[in-house]
Amino acid sequence: MAKLRMKKIELIAMLTDSKKIIELLQRRGVVEISKNDDEELENTNVTAVVGEFDKFRSTAVQALEIIDSYFPEKVGLADMFSGKTEVEKHEFGREAMQMEKVMSAANEIIKNQRIITESNASISQLEIKCDMLERWTPLDVPLNFKGTASTSAYIGTLPYQITSEELEEQLPDNCSVEVVSGSKEQTNLFILCSKDTYEEAGDKLRKLAFATVSEPESKTPNDLIASYKEEAEKLEKKIEDAKSFIEKLSENRKQLRFVIDYLQMRKEKYDALSGLGFTESTFVLTGYIPEKYAESLKKEIEAKYTAAITFTDPTDEDDVPVLLENSKFSAPVEGITKMYAMPGKGDVDPTPVMSFFYYLFFGMMLSDAGYGILMIIGTTIALKKFKLETSMKKTLTMFRNCGISTVFWGALFGSWFGDIAQVVARNFFDKEIGSLALWFEPLTDPVKLLLVSFGLGILHLFLGVAVAFKMTWDSGKKLDAIFDALPIYLIVLGVAPLGAGMFISVPEVLKTTGIYMLLAGVIILVLTAGRTSKSIFGKFFGGLYALYNTATGYFGDILSYSRLLALGLATGSIASVINLIGTMPENKVFKLILLIIVFVVGHIANLAINLLGAYVHTDRLQFVELFSKFYTGGGREFAPLTVNTKYIKFKEENSND
Amino acid sequence: MTNGLVLAIIGAALAALLAGIGSAKGVSLVGEAASGVVSVDPSKFSKVLVLELLPGTQGLYGLIAAMFILLRTGVLGGGAAELTVQQGLGFLAASLPIAVVGLISGIMQGRTAAAGVSITAKKPDHNGKAIIMAAMVETYAILALLISVLMILNIAV
Questions:
Q1: Under a CB-based contact definition with an 8 Å cutoff, are residues A135 and A180 in contact?
Q2: Residues of chain A contacting B68 with CB distance shorter than 8 Å
Q3: Chain B residues inside the 8 Å CB shell of A559
Q4: Fewest C-beta atoms under 10 Å: which of A134, A278, A332, A461?
Q5: So what's the pLDDT on residue A164?
Q6: Residue A228: which residues within 8 A CB-CB, separation 6 or more?
Q7: Is the ipTM of this complex over 0.90?
Q8: What pTM value is reported for the model?
Q9: Pair A188, A139: CB distance under 8 Å
Q10: What are the pLDDT digits (tens) for A472-492?
C-alpha cells in the first residue's frame, strides 16, 4: 500500500508502429514518458504539428464560448455533476472524420461573432453622432453652410450661456445672431454676417472662444439624423442575422466539444512522440510505470506489435514520480495528502497514517448526529446518482466517512440538531425527556471532554513519532530511532497524569510513576540529543536545547487539540440557540411555524459554517501536529500519458481509474 | 436587577460586540480582495468565498460566549439570578479573552486570508494552503473561546 513501487520502462519497437503504440499507452494511462536524453538517438520535431493542433483547438474553444454566451445550454443540477459523455471507440473514429465540417462551422461562428462586434461598435458611433446633431435640429440649413452671395455664416458653439442680444452687442453691425439651442454649459449659435464684416466678426468670435462645427455632409441636421438612424437599423438587422446564424450553428455544440477533446488528445500524443528517441527504423521510449501494471502492459504490447520491453529498478539519482494507492478506508483522504505535498523520496505515504484520526477528529469537531446524517445522505445520493471523476468521488467518500464519524460522536454526546428533541417535547408536549447522550453531554462536563481531547491528541502525536521511529529504524540507524522516540514517550506519558491531576483526581501511584518516567525521559534526552555534536560542551547544550524544544513543542501541540472540544461546543451551542430562537413566541401555532422556519434556515447555516470549520481544523491538526513529526513531502505526482479530455470519456476501461 | 447582573450582561455584550467587530472587519478585508479576483475570473467565486468566511468565526465565538453568560445568569430561560458584584465581575472577566482576542484575531485573520486570496488567484490548485495559513490565526481565538467558556461554566452562581 501507500506509495506504489515504480519501475523504469524501456520500450523498443518498430517506427511504423510508433503512433499505434503511443495511442495504446494513452488509453491505458499507466506510463509516464521521460524525455529521451540519449544523444545517439534522434529526436523528432513536432512543434509545427502541435502548434497546428493548438491553433485549431483554440478556434474550436472560441467558437464554443461564443455559442455558450449567446445560447447557453440549459443545465439541470444533475447535469452539473454528470461528468463526461461516454463514447465508444469506433464512434470516436467516425466523429473524428467530420472534423473538417465542424471546423468550418467554428470559423463561421467566429466570423459572425466578429460581424456582431463590429456592427455594435458602428451603432454606438452612430448614436454618438445623432446625440451631437440633436442640438442642431431647429436649424434648416446644412451644418457646413457657408453663407449666400452677400452673407457669410458662422455655425458653432460658445462654451457658456448667452442670449442673442448679448452677443449681437459685442459683434460688429450687420450681424444677426440666432440661438439654435443652449444649456448652462454651452450655447449653439447660427450667426449671419454681411461679407464686409465677416473677418471682423470672426476675430471677435475667436476671442470669445467660439468653436465652429465641423461636418462634411451637406445635409440638414434632421436629414442626417434620419439617414444615421436608417443605417443603424440596417446594422441591427445584420446583427440579428448573424445571431440567428450562430443559433443555427449552435447545433454543432456537441461536435465542437468532441473536436476540442480530439485535438487535445492528438496534441498530447504528438507531445509524447517528441520525448521518444529514433533510429532509422525503430524508436525507443523510456519512462516510469507502476510495477503492478508492468507485466500486463508488456504482454499486451508484445502480443500486438514487434517490440522489446525491459523493466529496471530506478536508481537513487532518478527523479521517480509518486503514485498513491491506498485501501478503501484510507484512499478518500489522499486528496488531503496531495493538498499538503506528495511524498518525497525518503517519505512514507502519510495517508494511511492519518486516515483514521482524520475521520475521528472531523466527527468530534462537528459532533452533531443530525448533521452527520445529512452529510451521509447528501454524499451517498451524489455518489450513486452522478457519474463522477475519480478525485471528486474520493472527496465525497471522505465526507461520507466523516459523516459516519459525526453521527457516532453526536450520538455519544446526545446532540441531534442540537437539543431539538428536548425542545419539541418541552414546548409542545409539556414533557421533559432528559439527555439523549450515550456517553455524556459536553456542556455538563467540559473538562472531561477537554482531557479526552488531549488524550486523543497524545495518541495522534505518538502515532507520528512511531512512524518516524520506524523510518529511522528501517534505515538502519536503530540507536538513533530509540533515542529520538523513547524520551518523548517517557516525558509525555510522565507529564500526562500530573497535568490531568490539576483537573481531576489521579491515583498517587500514577503520579509517582509519572514523575519517574519524566525524570528518566529528561535524562535520556539531555544525554543523547546532542550526540551529533563533536565537543562535550556541544553535546551537553545540544541536549538542553532539545529538552527545551521538546517541552515547548509538545506542550503547544497537545494544547492545540483543545480545538476538538471548542469546535464541538461551538456547533452544539449554536444549534441550541437556533432551537431557542424558534420557540420564543408564547402561542403554540406561531411557535410551530417559527420553529420550522428557523430550524431549516438556521441549521443549514450552522452546518455550512461548522463543516468549513471542522474541515479546516482537521486539516491543520494533520498538517501541523502530525506531519511535522515525520513528513517532509516534495515528491512529484505521477503524470502518465493519458486521455486528458474535458467532455468525453471512452467506454473502454482505463486501468488507472 | 442587581448590580452584579448588570456587570454580567456587560460582559456578554462585550463578547458579542468586540468579537463581532473583529469578524466584520476581517470578513470585509477578505471580501475586498476577493472581489478583485472575481471581477477577473468569476469561476473562482466559491474558492475565495471559503477564504472570506474564515474570519467570520470569531463573531460566532463571541455569540457563543455571550449566550453562555446569558444562560448561566438566567437572563435567557427565565429566573434571572441575584448576582453579587463579585460574581458579576467574574462573568465580565470571563468574557474578556474571547472579546479581545476575537476582535484582534478576526482582523488579523482577515489580513492573512486577504493575502491568501492572491494564492487562489495565481495558483488556484494551491488554494488549500491559503486556507491553512489563515486557519493558523484562528487557533488563538479558539483557545480564548475555550478559556472564556470554561470560566463562565465554572463561576459559582
A1: yes
A2: 573
A3: 143
A4: A134
A5: 82
A6: A126, A129, A130, A133
A7: no
A8: 0.77
A9: no
A10: 999 999 999 999 899 999 999
